[in-house]
Design a protein that fits this description.
With about 140 residues, this protein is of the alpha+beta class. The protein is built from four helices and six strands, in the order H-H-E-E-E-E-H-H-E-E. The strands form two sheets. It has a four-stranded antiparallel sheet. Strands 5-6 form a two-stranded antiparallel ribbon. Helix 3 runs antiparallel to helix 4 (about 105-115).
């Protein structure tokens, strides 16, 4: 896998993990599935501890952390380590050069190449994972 893409994905996953920690610390229950999250009655938009804003949408949420925004969908069984091409490119936008990419299209091309080579697998329509990695569930955060 392109090492720049791998670092970008790991940074994205770390930001999602931080966002989940903020949600939990703010008293929001972690979902056991994507549908469980979709059915939760939360303020739209909402504010977490430390004044951190979030917006719940469908099976995901966007959180504006001090380090930057991260937008995320839960996996079918509550997985919290998933990502997709658009969300990774969006996450990289403020720091494209730092991640070694010149354009969002370059991020998407590297992503597509990793999917084609089997290094990224996309078993769900909106969520992909690093091949061979253990799943991380929201309830484990």
């Amino acid at each position: 896998m392109n090492p720049h893409l791998h670092r970008l994905i790991r940074d994205y996953q770390a930001s999602v993990h931080m966002a989940l920690q903020k949600l939990r610390a703010s008293g929001i229950r972690m979902p056991t599935s994507a549908m469980d999250w979709a059915g939760m009655d939360l303020p739209l938009p909402g504010v977490l501890e430390d004044g951190i804003r979030y917006y719940k949408h469908g099976i995901g949420f966007a959180v504006w952390l001090p380090s930057g925004a991260v937008d995320f969908d839960f996996g079918e069984h509550g997985e919290a380590d998933g990502f997709n091409r658009g969300r990774i490119a969006q996450f990289a936008m403020p720091n494209l050069a730092a991640y070694g990419f010149e354009t969002p299209e370059a991020v998407k091309a590297a992503f597509d190449q990793a999917v084609a080579s089997g290094e990224i697998v996309c078993p769900e329509s909106t969520v992909c994972y690093l091949a061979g990695s253990d799943r991380v569930y929201a309830t484990d955060v």
